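Whether sequence alone determines local backbone shape is best considered at the level of individual chains. The sequence in question and its structure tokens are set out directly beneath this paragraph.

===
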Amino acid sequence: MYRIQLQQFEGPLDLLLFFIRRDELDVHDIPIARIADEFLEYVHYMKEVDLDGVGDFLYMAAVLINIKTRMLLPSPQVDEEGEPMDPRAELVERLMEYIRFKEASELLAREFEDRLSRHTRGLASAPEMPVRDPQDELVDATVFDLISALKRVLVDAPDEWVHQVEVEAYSLDEQQQFLRETLVRGERASFVALATGRSKPFIITTFLAVLELARTGEIDIFIGGQADDFQIALA
């Protein structure tokens, strides 16, 4: 079981890297046709929860579709060796450059944390950190790791309520309180189990409440054996 450290919402290149790392793909030989379809699917669910920056993802989706189309057609352009130009070349170059910057940023962050740990001044009054299960391994993750679970429950959620008398609405504050009251301290709950059979407004608002409570440190998120589910617990 892995306890994830949820990072801030990231950009479209991070979503591409999420697919590449998850499927252990060669960044120089990305299966654009499959990735473009799945990218669009994720963008659809991101629009459902109204996450910020969806416009950037729509632009990247258009780029992927353009590349996908060009790969189906004979290329009129050739490289210095007379071989047809790979339509993915520019995207691969952007990804490689992004990976270099991301790795440099992560290295600097680790060195910053290491340096902080060597200076105790000012830490004496710091709040005591909660004791964690030693079997939990902390890993970095993004919101993309959680969207798989959101997809799973939204697929089976009813599109509309027949004979509904009142409009069903949930607020972010209500769902945060729902999670606080539902979660028993020291125990973990499956997001899929909490959301299965519920309406789409309930699922989407609860998902956003999970993100907000994780951001404020009120809950921890755990990723286990199932790729399309995650567990939450009070921090």
